[in-house]
Structures are given as structure tokens and as C-alpha cells.
Amino acid sequence: MPVVAFSSPKGGVGKTTLAANVAVAMHQLGWGVVAMDFDVQNSLRLHFGMALSDGRGYVAAQDRPEDWPNMALQTPSGVFILPYGKASDQERLQFESHLIHDEDYLRRGLGPILDRDDWVVIADLAPGPVPALQALGRVGALQVAVLLADATSLSLLPVIEQGRFYGDTRPLVVVNQVDPRRRLSRTVTDFVAERIPDHLLGQVYRDEGAAEAIGWQRSVFEHAPNGVAARDIRAIAERLSARLKPAPVESEAREEEPSAQPEPQNGGRRWP
Ligand SMILES: Nc1ncnc2c1ncn2[C@@H]1O[C@H](COP(=O)(O)OP(=O)(O)OP(=O)(O)O)[C@@H](O)[C@H]1O
Ligand SMILES: [Mg+2]
């Protein structure tokens, strides 16, 4: 089940920040990683140093998922990314229609990686009950719901628990931007930990370094490697890695493996 999807009923909670940095941390743990953006905001790529003006992305090829492998871009972090890219309204709507109606859609696009147990897809979703949620569920994604350590997020916990957002699946939960100096933050964090002990994937402390890192278009591990966010995100990646075993092989060894894929036409970048 090598797909992890970061989503939330709520916007602005840190889905993209966590998806990008967990992707980097998973790669550092030895996994091959593809970070895939399902949000029209197209901001996942910014965490990997892509230029704002660079409109490359896979959604413009929404009717040719078999071509997506050739569109994966390797980033300096070692993570491959599939940016959402510049897409017209019509392309976006057709993409969403495929996600809803075409049962096999993501499997056709992600086939090469779904067959590899040492690679993982990290998906970043738009907020709310978006079509990608169900489509990712069909390829067995491990769902991770991101919440803030605040009262509004807490009010959404029943929505998640009662299956009104994720269907029958109970997602893992990350509480983000925890500030131990604030009483409300501590109260919310403790409540969630007591309420869903088996589904709490982790807590990520509020860290200015995490917010600044995106301004420099780099990961928190480069920008603030000794900060609390780097520590907490690394811990989350380690827990995910343990859940997604078998244990990954060394990156170098993986790179030397022969690939069944034909040589891609994108400047030598190689999809898993
Ligand atoms: N642990 C953290 N500490 C400090 N700032 C954070 C942390 N996590 C995220 N942020 C900041 O919070 C803001 C929102 O983060 P992000 O864009 O990742 O949220 P999102 O859930 O993806 O939003 P959207 O719903 O719009 O897609 C950003 O400015 C980001 O830098
Ligand atoms: Mg986002």
C-alpha cells in the first residue's frame, strides 16, 4: 500500500508543508518517493525549488494518465514530483470527473509505482471533501488527516471519526502547529491524544523555521534541521515507514537496479 494522502476537512492546516517535508524525510529513510499534487493551487512544487513561472504538470494530460510517468521531475532533494501544473478550467473539471467516475484512473497513471514496494507516493490534497480522496482510497492510500491544535479543528474531529469525510476508513491524524506555551493548544493536543490514541500519527510543533523554509523554497531539513518541526516530521516519517514496510533498500542500491520502464523522454529522469 505505498500511497500516503495528506488531506483535511479544513484549509490552511499544513497539508502541503507536511506532505512535502514527509516526502523528503521518507527519501532520507531510503524510500523512493514521488510527491504528487492534487491541489489546483499547485504549491507542492514550491517546496522543491520549482520556479513560480514553471507551469509543467500532469493535470494538463488528464486524458493520458499513462503519460504521467514521463512527467515526473526529479528535484535536488532526490524526491520526484508530479506537479499539478498549469491547467485550464476544462482540464481541471475533466481531471476531477475522471477521479470520480473512472475506477481505474489512478492505477493507470501510477501503475509503475504501485507495483513497487520500496517506493511511496505522497499525495497532497486540496481542503475539503475533494474527488481525489475517493480515487486515492481506491488505490489503497493510507489517509492522513491534518488538523490544527485549535478549537475549530477540534470541532471537526467527530466529522472524521463518524466517517462523514473519509467513508468507512478511519484516517490517521496529525495535529500541526502545536504551541506548548498556549493553554488552548495544549488542551486540544491532549484531548486528541486521549480520544484517538491508536489513530494519532503525530504532533508537529509550531516552528517559524517550517514557515520560513517555503520562502526559501527548501525543506525544513535544509532550512531548520535542528528545529522542532524537523524533529516531529522526521518522527512521523519513521512511523509511516514502519507501517509501510518492507524495509526500504539503500538509495544507491535502488538506483542501480535495472528498470523495466523504457527510457523516459524528459531529460533522463527515471520513474520508478
Ligand atoms: N508546523 C508549522 N509551524 C509553523 N508554520 C507552519 C507549520 N506548518 C505549516 N505552517 C505554515 O502554515 C501555512 C499553511 O500551510 P500549508 O500551505 O502547508 O497548509 P495547507 O493545509 O496545505 O493549506 P491549503 O488548505 O490552502 O492547501 C503556511 O504558511 C505554512 O508555512
Ligand atoms: Mg495545501
Keywords:
single chain; binds magnesium ion; 38% helix; Rossmann fold; binds adenosine-5'-triphosphate; eight-stranded mixed beta sheet; 272 residues; globular; 8 strands; alpha/beta
Q: Gist?
A:
The chain is an alpha/beta fold and 272 residues long. The chain has helices spanning 15-28, 89-101, 105-114, 131-138, 151-161, 183-195, 208-215, 220-223, 228-243, 251-256, and strands spanning 3-7, 32-37, 73-74, 80-82, 119-124, 142-148, 172-178, 200-205.
What structural category characterises the helix and strand content?
alpha/beta
Please identify the top-level CATH class: Alpha Beta
SSE succession: EHEEEHHEHEHEHEHHHH
Order of strands, widest sheet: 3-4-2-5-1-6-7-8
The N- to C-terminal Cα distance equals 15 Å
Q: How many DSSP E strands?
A: 8
The CATH architecture: 3-Layer(aba) Sandwich
Describe the structure.
The chain has 272 residues and is of the alpha/beta class. Helices cover 38% and strands 15% of the residues. It has a single domain, classed as P-loop containing nucleotide triphosphate hydrolases (Rossmann fold, 3-Layer(aba) Sandwich), CATH 3.40.50.300. It has helices at residues 15-28, 89-101, 105-114, 131-138, 151-161, 183-195, 208-215, 220-223, 228-243, 251-256; strands at 3-7, 32-37, 73-74, 80-82, 119-124, 142-148, 172-178, 200-205. A hairpin with a 5-residue loop joins strand 3 and strand 4. Helix 2 packs across helix 4 (131-138). The structure holds adenosine-5'-triphosphate and magnesium ion.
Helix/strand layout:
Elements: E1 3-7, H1 15-28, E2 32-37, E3 73-74, E4 80-82, H2 89-101, H3 105-114, E5 119-124, H4 131-138, E6 142-148, H5 151-161, E7 172-178, H6 183-195, E8 200-205, H7 208-215, H8 220-223, H9 228-243, H10 251-256
Parallel strand pairs: 1-5, 1-6, 2-4, 2-5, 6-7, 7-8
Antiparallel strand pairs: 3-4
Helix pairs in contact: 1-9, 2-4
Magnesium ion (MG) binds next to helix 1.
